[in-house]
Amino acid sequence: MSESASALPASASSLLPGAFRIPKEIECWGHRGASAHLPENTLASFRAAILEGADGIESDVHATSDGVVLMFHDPTLDRTTTGTGTIKTQPWEGVIEHARTKKEPVQPIPLFAELVALLMEPANLHVVLNLDCKMQNDPERLFPEMARIVATYPDWETTLAPRLILGLWHPLFIRSALRHLPLLTRYHIGFSLSIARTFFWDACSGFSIAFPVLMSSAGQTFLQECREAGKEICVWTVNDPGEMRIAMGWGVQAILTDRVGVLTGLKKEIVAHPELLPLSGIKGSLFGWSSWRYYSLAHTWMQRTQLDVLRTMCYQPGPLKLPDLADEVRERPALKT
């Protein structure tokens, strides 16, 4: 095995896609970094997550009006920073670059280029980056700039691309992903299993699904279908130790959490003492009924909400349609999905 291949996480170098993972093989991905105790989506948060043992980072991308790609969750600056207004209507230079986090320690908003540079540091060549591509952005503005940044690194096809995952909410992003970032893995993010099956099953090699949805019988059926088809499953956002245990019992690829230290510590404990994995006693028996989020009525509401959001909040509002990918597939017959 080459040095670059050996630096990749287990899911990228040895395990078959969709394989059931025992706890020591399940990855911890820091949701917006170590966001439980540091400002979310900042370099400080990303670095802390890695130091706490995260195998991957989950973060979000937006493009400014002057074409700069930055790491930020909301479409507006107001909730977490001193800035105001919509990201895509304001320039980075002279405006957004001056915004700082409200939460301490005060941090600037990081650029995509800065996060990639962090991943390419010698100590971090094992770290995966799961990119939540926010639907308010036109992918034809977002993806070409991301592709340009990725391609600035020597041997990026082998040292960087295998560690980058494009998380897609909306089917309008599939064609642009194929065109501009064909070597990057594609996952669908969501909490609607019907949308996942209808619009993303053929175009994506994995799914990042909200934890409560997988608690249902329909969720467990979807999990089994993915396993049989060789498709990966990740779950978000899992901060409760009980939910962490349940997710590890499902044998998923990765668990996304704000509490990286809690998950990595629990994982080490269970690897050393496998008998601690199952929830025992009354808590184990009643866990499936312990939260309204696990109920089918809540899942129906979640799925309707996702459909409404995709129809109305995307950069191009309207009904969902399957993209015509014939030209992209013909041009790139060996694309990685």
From TrEMBL:
GO terms for biological process: lipid metabolic process. Residues 26-267 form the GP-PDE domain. Signal peptide: none annotated. PROSITE patterns: GP_PDE. Transmembrane segments: none annotated. InterPro entries: GP_PDE_dom, PLC-like_Pdiesterase_TIM-brl. Pfam families: GDPD (PF03009). This is Glycerophosphodiester phosphodiesterase. The lineage of its organism: Eukaryota, Fungi, Dikarya, Basidiomycota, Agaricomycotina.
